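cysteine desulfurase
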Amino acid sequence: MLAKNLYNSAALSASMKIGKVAFISTIGSRLIHKRPMYFDYQATTPLDPRVLDKMMPFFTEKFGNSHSRTHGYGWEAEDAVESARKNIAELIKSQPKEIVFTSGATESNNTIIRGVCDIYGDIKNKRNHIITTQIEHKCVLSTMRELELKGYRVTYLNVDKKGLISLEELEKAIIPGETILVSVMHVNNEIGVVQPMALIGELCKKYGILFHSDVAQGLGKLNIDVNKWNSDFLSLSAHKVYGPKGIGAFYIRSKPKRRIKPLIFGGGQERGMRSGTMPVPLVVGFGEACKIALEEMNADSIHIKMLYDKLYKGITSKLPDVELNGCGVNRMFGNLNLSFKGVEGESLMMKLHSMALSSGSACTSASLEPSYVLRAIGVGEDVAHTSIRFGIGRFTTHEEIDKAVKDVVDSVNQLREMSPLWNSETNSSTVDEESLKWT
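Predicted C-alpha cells:
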C-alpha cells in the first residue's frame, strides 16, 4: 500500500510540474477516470514517478547533447549518461564500459545475434550453427529465420511441459567447431518460466561457444550476474523495469573481449557499436529505474509473491478445472498464466472490463492463432485458446487482487453456464466435439 500511495502522490506531483493534471492517466488515476486495474506487467510496466522526476530536467534546462564535448551543456549530459550506464552495470554485476545503449531489447537482440554471425560466423567452413529455443521472443525467432535464409543452421530446442530446456539436449545439439552461439531467454514473457542460466553458461564455456540471453523480463526482478552465468551478451529493456519506452541496452563482455558488427552505422557513438544521438532523458530514466530496482528488488519480490499466491489460490480455490501454464517453482511470480477449461480466453478478457490483461505476448496478442509458447509446452490448441496471462507488479495492491479474484470467478462461471462444451463435459452427455472447437 505504501508503494501505491507513493505512486499516486508522486504522479500527481509530476503532473502538476508540467501543468497537466490530466497527465495522471496511469495506475494512480484509475479511481478518478474509472480506468481498469492493470494486470499486464509483462507487456510493459508503468513509469515509476521517481524515474519521471529524474528525467524531467533533461527535457527542459539540461537539454545538451552528450556527444558535445566543447561546453557545459554537453558535459552535463555526458555525466548523466555515464551515471546511468553505471547504475545499469551494477544491476547485472558488469562494468559500465560493457553497457551499450540501444532503442530497446528488440534492437539489442537483432544487433547481437546478427552481429555475432557477421564476426564469428563462416558459412563456407560450416561455422554457421546457432542454438536457441522454441519459446524465444518473436524478435529472436524472426532473426533466426532470417539467418537461416542466408545459410545459417539453427537448432530450436524443445522444452518440457514446464517450459524448461533440457541441458542434456542442449549439449547434444552442440557441434564442436561449428556452433558459434547459444541464445536462450532468461524469463519467458508468456509463462514466466526461468531457465537455468548458470548451467547453460557453464556448457557454453566448456565448448567455447558464445552465450547470449534476452533478460528483458527478469531485469530488476531477479538476480542477474554476468560472471556467474558466464554471459557474453545480454539484451536489456527499460520499459519492463518501470523505466521509459524507447530505450534499451546490451551487455557485451570485455574480458575476454567479444566483438560484434554494428547494425546501425553513423557517427560512431557507443564505441562504434551503436551510432546515433543519445536520447539523454530516456537514458537517465533507464539508469534511475535500474538503481531503484537494485535497492528495492527484495521488497518488490516479497510483495509480488504474496499477491501472486493470493490471486492464484483465490481463483483455483473457487473454480474447478483451472491449470497453471509453466513451472510452478522456477518462475517469475509476477507472471500467472492460467487456462480455464470451457472458457474462450478472448471472451473472458472482453467480459473482464475491470482488468487490463492479455492472453499472451503483447507483440502478437492481436493474433487469433494459439500461443506458440503454450503449444511448445504441450498445451492443446483448444486449451491454449482458454488461457489468460495475469501480470503483477510493484504497484499492484491487495485490494486489486481481491477484486480480480471476484471478477474472474464470476465471469468464468457466467461463461461456463453459456458454454455447450463445458455443459456437455460436466453433464457427461454425448456431443460432437469437432463442432465445438474454437475458431
